[in-house]
Amino acid sequence: MFSVVMNILCRGMQPLIIKVGIQHGHYAYILAGSTVIWLIVIFASAFKVNETTPWNVDTIGYLCMVGVGAVAAIGSLFYYKAMNDLPASLVSLCIATNPAITLVCAHWLLKERLTMGQWLGVPLVAAGVFLLLFFKETPS
Questions:
Q1: Which letter, b or e, does each residue of 80-111 get, where b requires 16 or more Cβ atoms within 10 Å of its Cβ?
Q2: Contacts of 103 (CB under 8 A, 6+ apart)
């Protein structure tokens, strides 16, 4: 549970830190610098978790590593560009659809069975984001 809470807190703060960072430097440089820090933390964690064989990965694992890296890099580039061009509150709302997209893709691609609550959650997330994006109050 601690890991879940830490993930929520860190992911919640991330857009705010990114927005401040890109106000003080080009978004591509902020992304590149944060990626280097990210790599250092992740590699340190990988060696700590599996000290005897840090690269205990088969071929599919390596292909997934490349795939995740490519998708994350491309997604991050667009995310940072969006944060550069739009308010953080708007971009963060769009990111809130990620879990719903993951649920649908997990069902279709991985053949995972979803619960009724998960199926109900997908349109609720979409409806919530839609309402927040298109029916916001105008500042006075």
A1: bebbbeeebeebbbeeeeeebeebeeeeeeee
A2: 114, 118, 121, 122
Task: Work out the pLDDT band at 117, boundaries 50, 70, 90.
Answer: very high
Q: In this structure, what token pair is assigned to residue 55?
A: 């690269």
**Three-state SS at 38:** helix
Residues 6+ apart with CB under 8 A from 133: 90, 93, 94
Instruction: Decide: pTM greater than 0.85.
Output: no
In terms of domains, do 80 and 101 share one? no
With beta carbons less than 8 A apart as the criterion, state whether 38 and 18 touch: no
Same domain, 53 and 19: yes
The total number of structural domains in the chain stands at 2
Nearest to 123 by CA among 107, 140, 101: 101
